[in-house]
Design a protein that fits this description.
Elements: E1 9-12, E2 16-21, E3 27-33, H1 35-46, E4 50-57, H2 62-67, E5 73-81, E6 88-92, H3 104-110, H4 129-136, H5 138-143, E7 154-157, H6 162-174, E8 179-182, H7 194-201, E9 206-210, H8 211-217, H9 225-233, E10 239-243, E11 249-253, E12 258-262, H10 275-290, H11 293-307, H12 323-332, E13 336-337
Parallel strand pairs: 1-4, 1-7, 2-6, 4-5, 7-8, 8-9, 9-10
Antiparallel strand pairs: 2-3, 10-11, 11-12, 12-13
């Protein structure tokens, strides 16, 4: 591996070996992905030098990790834990909205596709076993971060075990990181974890989630989405962002107390895998440059629309030059202010 010693951004998240059947019925097998790569690819595309923080098992092919350096990502923060870990993930999209995660053998057969042997005994676990491993191995994951990563100026923490997220956020902010965004794991977006979510969101540039999870967190507290977003900001978050169930993104800007809704660009949804991760990465890159949440959410929405048109974390790099800003121009005319 190379040993670059400067990264501008840091992204912490999970790696996955993905098996995807897109909306056209085409299969992509054993594709390296996961929240870590989708977010980092977007940060790298719209921001600059990006370091990766993640964990893999001793059975994970190191050549796959080393290949990421060809994409100009710094992989020194990916740690190997001394056990065999199954990182297989299955996604199938019969249409642009529905995602199937279970029974891949039947789904491959229905699409007249050969079932990869890795999926013959696949069992989807909604609780996400790797989430617990991040807490169990947090000493390896957090205490052994390359020291120069702490000199980065911005970071994003993808959905992980919440205690690990809090510890990681605290460590990064003790360094040079001044722009931190987080997306909580869905298992933490429950009333019982409200205090932990308040700690996680404190002093962050952005707290990013989806409407269903936010409503679940605020269950029996309020039904008003804007009250939920402003409530998150009351804990010290600068911008609280939610992906609406009906499409588009709503956010509350604590600095101006303004509320906005940014639409989704009407793109062809071929493969939505990593859509929110790309949104988070593009937002961080834009916000780090201009500290304008409206500009940043608009760019992020445009970036997400580009991602769903292709498969894999790096499909965004194949988009036409200027496509992101052309879509931003359309989205700016569709912004609703409240």
């Amino acid at each position: 591996m190379t040993s670059r010693r400067f990264v501008k951004f840091v992204v912490a998240g999970q790696l996955r070996n993905e098996y995807i059947i897109d909306t056209t019925g085409k299969a992509f097998n054993n594709l390296l992905g996961g929240s870590l790569l989708y977010t980092a690819a977007a940060v790298n595309r719209w921001g600059g030098q990006t370091g990766l923080l993640g964990m893999i098992g001793q059975n994970f092919p190191l050549e796959q990790v080393e290949a990421l350096e060809e994409m100009e990502l710094d992989v020194r923060g990916i740690k190997i834990i001394p056990e065999i870990v199954n990182l297989t993930a299955f996604y199938a999209y019969p249409n642009g909205k529905t995602c199937l995660r279970e029974n891949p053998v039947a789904v491959y057969a229905a699409n007249t596709l050969t079932v990869p042997k890795e999926l013959l005994d696949y069992s989807y676990d909604d609780d996400d076993p790797m989430r617990a491993k991040y807490l169990l191995n947090s000493r390896i994951f957090i205490d052994d971060i390359p020291l120069d990563y702490l000199d980065s100026s911005a970071a994003h923490i993808c959905p992980l075990e919440i205690t690990c997220q809090i510890q990681l956020g605290t460590l990064l902010q003790k360094g040079a990181v001044r722009t931190l965004s987080v997306q909580p794991h869905h298992s933490s977006m429950i009333p019982a974890c409200f205090d932990e979510i308040a700690i996680l969101s404190k002093d962050t540039a952005a707290f990013i989630t989806n409407e269903m999870e936010l409503r679940q967190l605020f269950q029996n507290r309020t039904d008003d989405l804007w009250e939920m977003l402003s409530g998150i900001c009351n804990y010290g978050c600068h911008t609280a962002i939610v992906k609406n169930s009906t499409g588009g993104f709503s956010f509350f800007d604590r600095n101006t107390s303004k509320r906005y809704r940014v639409a989704e660009y009407p793109s062809q949804r071929v493969d939505p895998t990593g859509e929110m991760d790309v949104f988070c990465g593009a937002f961080l890159a834009a916000y780090h440059d201009n500290y304008d949440p409206l500009y940043s959410v608009t760019l992020a929405s445009a970036a997400a629309s580009i991602k769903v048109e292709g498969t894999g974390p790096f499909s965004i790099n194949a988009s036409l030059p200027g496509l992101d800003h052309a879509r931003m121009a359309v989205l700016r005319d569709m912004v609703t202010r409240y």
